[in-house]
Structures are given as C-alpha cells and as structure tokens.
Design brief:
Blueprint: E1 2-9, E2 17-24, E3 29-33, H1 40-47, E4 55-60, E5 63-64, H2 72-78, E6 79-82, H3 94-104, H4 110-123, H5 139-151, E7 157-161, H6 169-183, E8 188-192, H7 196-202, E9 205-210, E10 213-218, H8 220-225, H9 230-236, E11 239-246, H10 253-266, H11 271-289, E12 298-305, E13 310-317, H12 331-339, E14 340-347, E15 355-361
Parallel strand pairs: 3-8, 3-9, 6-7, 7-8
Antiparallel strand pairs: 1-2, 1-4, 4-5, 9-10, 11-12, 12-13, 13-15, 14-15
Helix pairs in contact: 3-4, 3-5, 4-5, 5-6, 10-11, 11-12
This protein binds adenosine-5'-diphosphate and magnesium ion (MG).
Length: 362
C-alpha cells in the first residue's frame, strides 16, 4: 500500500536518507530501530510529507504523494502521526482535542465526532477524563489522548515516533499496551522505538536504519535473533568496540593495557573475559605476530557484546601469511588454545593488511 522508490532527504549539512526503497503492505506493523541520527524520524516525516523529500517517489494506495499536484491534505488524513511530545492543545478539553480535526477537516457533525471520541476514550481507558484539560493529566495519559486523537481521523496508517520516550518509566507500560492493542487490530503501523522487547512483541517486520537508509529489513526473529549484517549485529548485541593500531615494536603497551582495562571496566565484562582479552592481545598480537613483522602495521578491534557476553577480536596485519597458531609446543599457542572458542584466519586478496584473524573468546 505504501511504495517508496529511491527516497532521498538532504539537509544542508547531512543526508539522513540517501536512497531508500521499500514496500509496506496493508496491515504491516513495522518497528523502526537504529542508532540516533540515522533518519528514523526523517523517514516517517517524509512518508506523510511533513518533510519534502529531495529526491525519489512515494505512492500511497497507488497515488503518488510526491507528485506536486497531489492534494497533500487528503493524503495526510490517511496517515496519523503520534509524536514523542503529544502536541495536545492546552486550552481545549480532552474531548475537544479529539473532536477538533474530524469536525474541521472531515466535516463530521459535533455529535458524530463526540460519539466517536468517547468510544476512543474508552478504548484508551480514559473516558472519565473527557472534560479535563491536558495540564491535569499525566504524561502517559496525555499520550493515550494523543493516540485517541489520531485514531479519531480513522487513518489507514499510523506513524508513531518514539511515543514513549518522553514518559516517566512508570507510564511507559500503559501507553505500550494501547499501542499493542492497536497493532493487533490490523492497522498498518510504523513505530520508531528504542524499547526492543516492545518492538519485538508488536511487529511483524523490523527496519534497522543505518548508513543512510534501511540497512536491514526482516522479521522480528531475523533481526533480533539472527541479524545478518555487521552494524545490525553490533546494535542488537549491544556491542562496544575498542580499536587500536600498532605500528612499531616500541608501542606503548602499558597505556594500551590501561585502555583495555578501562574498556572492560566500563562494559562490566566478567573478570575472566577481561583476562582473556588481555591474553589474546598479549600472546597472539604481541608475542606471535609483532616479532615477525619487519615494518609492523597491525589493526586490532576488540568487540564485546553485553547481550551475548562474549568478545570477538579482529586483527588485521601486513606481512607474510600468518600461521601462528600452527606452531606446535609454543607457550603462547597453548595459552591461546585454552581461551579461544572460535578461530578464523584468512589471507585477503588485496589491501595493505592482508592477514585477517577473527577470534571469539570463551
Ligand atoms: N530540519 C532539519 N534540518 C537539518 N538537519 C536535520 C533536520 N532534521 C533532522 N536533521 C538531521 O538529520 C539526521 C537524522 O535525523 P533524524 O531523522 O531525527 O534521526 P533519528 O530519528 O534516527 O534520530 C540528524 O543528523 C539530524 O541532525
Ligand atoms: Mg528521531
């Protein structure tokens, strides 16, 4: 029902959306996740034309909304948007807030708008608040009213941009359960959220946004259990990264081990894990690799996943093909064999650093 082709949104100094193409089907409930600044809000705002795309085309129900002759008000009525900050009118009661757009924009009678408004207030569990002003409500209640107000327009698509992130933690649940009910009702929805368990529970599809677009698109199971691409894995597994380059045997290893200790401390790795990370750097990189390189150039990336509680160390180096772990009876090798759960070596075809080693630590 929504088709997006080569969507681009450029601001003067950033281009959050470089080239987005996708199709959203009727009844899809899509969780949009990803690091901040990756264009999640921009994508939602382009879909309902709150932002004008700088290139590309969008169709809703076969009608091209990016066509300059398209009546954007009509399209927007099909798409409701719920914001982080509620945006209720403070000088109007709850029921007036909900009745406003249906009366003004859809030409409904006040009675009709009132009846529908009360029905929606019941749905969000706030019928008793109809005559209150927004100021008299908690954040969670305001957001439930904002959702009711969006539904009053009977939109075909609902776009929610971090609907619970401005709320006190005690109120997140009440808003999430309203959204969950909505998601179960067959409405097409896109929801930007940082609450992963919630995202997973309500959606049938996930967009992970990064690098200027939808970096990975899949079912909740695919994205949350078996993410395929590197950035998705790092995000889902909450991986933290420490990277350094060793370009001389006079490298300041004391400072490096200080940095590794800090990294482990900050990420609360188990003591055993931080010892193993140190050992890999010391035994593999410093004892086995460094001495055989004439003009060393070694790039090391330590990656720790708080979710999987494991570490991965990726080492790239110049020089001849590395066969370090095949040397028998070497102390360093036996130490390494005791702590590595997976070892991968590859001789790359091109580049300066053609030895690639990836080890996973127990
Ligand atoms: N109106 C704007 N003018 C200029 N830059 C903007 C504007 N809106 C967003 N941006 C920039 O675009 C990038 C993506 O923003 P946004 O879509 O809000 O990301 P997200 O919602 O994923 O955190 C950010 O770098 C942000 O600073
Ligand atoms: Mg945002």
């Amino acid at each position: 029902m929504i088709k997006i082709e080569h969507l681009q949104k450029k601001y003067s100094n950033v281009t959050p959306l470089k080239d987005v193409s996708t199709e959203i089907n009727d009844g899809d409930v899509i969780s949009v996740i990803g690091p901040s600044g990756t264009g999640k809000s921009t994508l939602l705002r382009c879909i309902n034309m709150l932002e004008k795309p700088t290139a590309g085309r969008i169709w809703v129900d076969g009608e091209e909304i990016t066509d300059p002759s398209c009546d954007i008000r009509k399209i927007r009525q099909k798409m409701g948007m719920v914001f982080q900050s509620f945006n209720l009118f403070g000088h109007m009661t709850v029921i007036e807030n909900i009745m406003l757009a249906p009366v003004k924009l859809l030409g409904k009678s006040r009675q009709e708008a009132y009846d529908k408004g009360m029905e929606l207030l019941h749905m969000v569990g706030l019928a008793q608040k109809e005559m209150n002003y927004p100021d008299e409500l908690s954040g969670g209640q305001k957001q439930r009213i904002a959702i009711a107000r969006t539904l009053a327009m009977d939109p075909e698509v609902i776009l929610l941009d971090e609907p619970t992130s401005a709320l006190d933690p005690t109120m997140v649940g009440e808003v999430q359960s309203v959204i969950e009910e909505l998601a179960g009702s067959g409405k097409t929805m896109m929801i930007v959220t940082h609450e992963m368990a919630f995202a997973r529970a309500i959606c049938n599809r996930v967009f992970f946004m990064d690098e200027g677009g939808i970096y990975e698109d899949g079912t909740p199971e695919e994205i949350f259990e078996h993410p395929v691409r590197e950035n998705t894995q790092r995000f889902i597994w909450k991986s933290k990264i420490l990277e350094f380059d060793i370009k001389s045997s006079n490298y300041d290893f004391r400072a490096l081990f200080g940095e590794i200790d800090n990294f482990c401390l900050k990420n609360r790795t188990a003591l055993k894990m931080s010892n193993h990370i140190r050992l890999v750097v010391e035994e593999m990189v410093i004892q086995l690799m460094l001495p055989v390189l004439e003009d060393p150039d070694i790039n090391v990336t330590i990656e720790y996943s708080a979710v999987k509680e494991n570490s991965k160390v990726t080492v790239k180096s110049n020089g001849h093909a590395f066969d370090g772990l095949r040397i028998e009876n070497d102390l360093a090798v036996s130490v390494l064999k005791g702590i590595i759960s997976d070892f991968h070596y590859e001789r790359l075809d091109e580049g300066e650093l053609r030895n690639l080693i990836i080890v996973e630590l127990k």
